[in-house]
Amino acid sequence: MSTMQAVTAHAGSAEIHLETLPIPELGAQDVLVRVAAAGLAPGMLTLLSRGAFRHLPTVLGHEAAGTITTVGSEAQANGWAPGQRIRVHPQLNCRTCAACTTDRDMLCAQQAMIGHAAFGPAPMPLYERYHDGGLAEYIRVPHWLLDPLPDNVSFDLGAKVHDLANALRALKLAALRPGSTLVVTAATGTMGTATIKLAPYFGIARLILVGRSRARLDAVSRLAGALPTDTVALEELDTDWTTESGLTTRLRHLLPQGADAVLDYTPDGPTTWQATAALAPGATMVHMGGNPTPCPFPALTLMTNCWRLVGTRSCTRSDVHEVLRLMETGLLQAENLITHRYPLTEVRSALHMLQTRTEPMWMAVINPSEAPQQRS
């Protein structure tokens, strides 16, 4: 078969398309992967509408796992062979600059994501060649983006390792001491649920989960297991909570001394800063939600409370390898995070489900190359 099905985006359109394209041709450093699972992230549609995709048309999707089918000569010399189970690391980097060699990959001037956005102003030759992503039957990537997938980790979960590594990076940046209390906003989304799964490995003593829906919060709180957990449903706050700091009041009621950290994954609205206002003196807020809402309080407030605000847009490769080790050893059991599976032909309805989340939905994947497993 010389063609494949792929989900694409085009310049001047906010719509996605299902197309038949040629299977990519390989260079010496490349591998061709038959995609068994591709992760879905609704944020890519937001970035598409904002013009963050620097190369269009493109195949969408920055999360993929599958089996190598063909290797170039350089890839073969580096130990890669057909039949190997792998996950694809989505981040393109130069690999030689100060950021890349000090575990700060996201600061590389060449930093971009396959099937996704590019962030720097510099010319990006890697992104020009490897901008196509994993929402397709096949993907071509350079061999250095491959990570072996442990045999005890499914392709579906392998495709979502990036989200778990993002949550791991956010938890590291929070610099929590054992016994800390952590507030997680947008807790019923992909990043929130990944954080809940990883929280025990950071010695967190108590979780406060913030989300829009009571029903979804009740469902997600079960992921915390024995970890003491409280929930705050935005739909249950007073109707004027957005203007009268209702979330801050509720969090302060639960945590009179303040939270040790807030991990904020909120994409818009007042939740980010109202949760920040519930921090204890000297505490940290880590933001990975892309919220454009301006900060409502002065820098004096930050100074007086000695708050630390940290922004991060991605994980590093070392975070990925740490997550893979946790899963390979069985210390991290995360297969139940995959709640929905779809064939490639249902990608539009799958993204709609992710954006509306009318039912409990943690992580969703597309299975392009085989019949999807039954949805949870």
What features would you describe in this structure?
The protein is of the alpha/beta class and 376 residues long. It folds into two domains: 3-149 and 334-366, Medium-chain alcohol dehydrogenases, catalytic domain (Quinone Oxidoreductase, Chain A, domain 1, Alpha-Beta Complex), CATH 3.90.180.10; 167-311, NAD(P)-binding Rossmann-like Domain (Rossmann fold, 3-Layer(aba) Sandwich). It contains twelve helices and 18 strands. The strands form four sheets. Strands 3, 5, 6, 9, 10, 17 and 18 form a seven-stranded mixed β-sheet that branches. Helix 5 crosses helix 6. It is globular. It starts with a strand and ends in a 10-residue tail after the last strand. Residues 371-376 have low confidence and may be disordered.
Brief write-up:
The protein has 376 residues and is α/β, with parallel strands linked by helices.
What would the principal axes of the Cα set say about the shape?
A: globular
Which architecture of the largest domain does the CATH hierarchy give at level 2? Alpha-Beta Complex
Percent strand equals 15-25%
CATH superfamily label of the largest domain: Medium-chain alcohol dehydrogenases, catalytic domain
Number of domains: 2
DSSP helix fraction: 25-40%
Estimated radius of gyration? 21 Å
CATH fold description of the largest domain: Quinone Oxidoreductase, Chain A, domain 1
Structural class: alpha/beta
CATH class of the largest domain: Alpha Beta
Please mark out the parts with pLDDT under 50 across 5 or more consecutive residues, or reply none: 371-376
Task: Work out the helix count.
Answer: 12
**Largest β-sheet summary:** 7 strands, mixed
The tally of beta strands, per DSSP, is 18
Please report the distance between the alpha carbons of the first and last residues.
Answer: 32 Å
Average pLDDT figure: 93
The SSE order reads EEEHEEHEEEHEEHHEHEHEHEHEHEHEHE
User: What would you call the quaternary organization?
Assistant: single chain
